[in-house]
Amino acid sequence: MLPHPLTGVPFASPVPPGSGWPDDPADAGTPVAHSADEVVDLARSAADVAELDARVSVCRACPRLVGWRESVAVSGRRAGFADQPYWGRPGPGFGDARPRLLVVGLAPAANGTNRTGRMFTGDRSGDWLYAALHRAGYASQPTSRHAGDGLELTGARIVAAVRCAPPANKPTPEERRTCGHWLDRELELAAPTARCLLALGAIGWDAALAAVRRLGWTVPRPKPRFGHGAESHLITPQGRRLRLLGSYHVSQQNTFTGKLTEEMLDAVLARTR
Ligand code: SF4
Fold first, then answer.
1. Residues near ligand 1 (Cβ within 6 A)
2. 271 CA → ligand 1 middle, Å
3. Nearest CA to ligand 1 atom 2
């Protein structure tokens, strides 16, 4: 048991559902998916975002990713975080339950979301993303270090193509397909209010397009190509039009090299309004 860096409350790693972790959406009774078919059933029957978050956060459908996220949490902690408990569970969506903007990222980082339990929280990618969301008026504060720090998003929600930290940041096609069913339900629940999907990186872009196709939304043909600032239009079966925007991912690989600058990210976020 190690103390949570913000609250000081001791936790085991991985964190048991309902044991008091800040903003843990699940409890000991939350149903757990152990296969792709169970992900489909539990995603489709999630009545709202709160239920979806809870079910995502305890999912065990991908054995390789479950093994990896838990091994990092138990024995693979980065030296600088060795005195902290690790969430060691999938990252549930974070933000406004009725978003105008749905941000679709790639996957949690092993020492970021897999440690803190919140999307893009506790790593350099998150520093970039939340600072930009704050400048754009979506985030209540520019930093996101720990769950329970008071950060709120208004009008925006962040989800990911894959919810468990993958080894080398590379989920397999099967893992992407399995986790895509959670994303399908995210899109269905966001569709009544969302005006814009912002895909971070080509994997987020492809995952969003695959999900909306499965849901029967109208997607332009040929398939819209990903690029920084790329834009396409999607139409839901109810006739609502949404914009799909692309941005280079906020990974260090892009931000350290200058491939993605603050100005470039701000310019894309300005178009989500
Ligand atoms: Fe479940 Fe997605 Fe994690 Fe696979 S990647 S175990 S489907 S949450």
1. 39, 56, 59-62, 65-66, 90, 162-164, 175, 178-179, 182
2. 31
3. 179
- Which residue in the block uniquely carries the two structure tokens 């940041």? 169
Assess whether pLDDT exceeds 90 at residue 79. yes
* Alpha-carbon distances, residue 266 vs 2, 58, 137, 232, 241 (angstroms): 38, 34, 11, 19, 23
Which residue range forms the structural domain that includes residue 239? 2-270
Q: What is the pLDDT of residue 273?
A: 86
DSSP-derived letter for residue 45 is T
Q: Report CA(32)–ligand 1 centroid distance (Å).
A: 11
pTM: 0.97
Domain count, the chain: 1
CATH, residue 200: 3.40.470.10
Q: CA 123 → CA 27, 51, 145, 146, 154, distances in Å?
A: 26, 27, 8, 10, 21
pLDDT of residue 230: 98
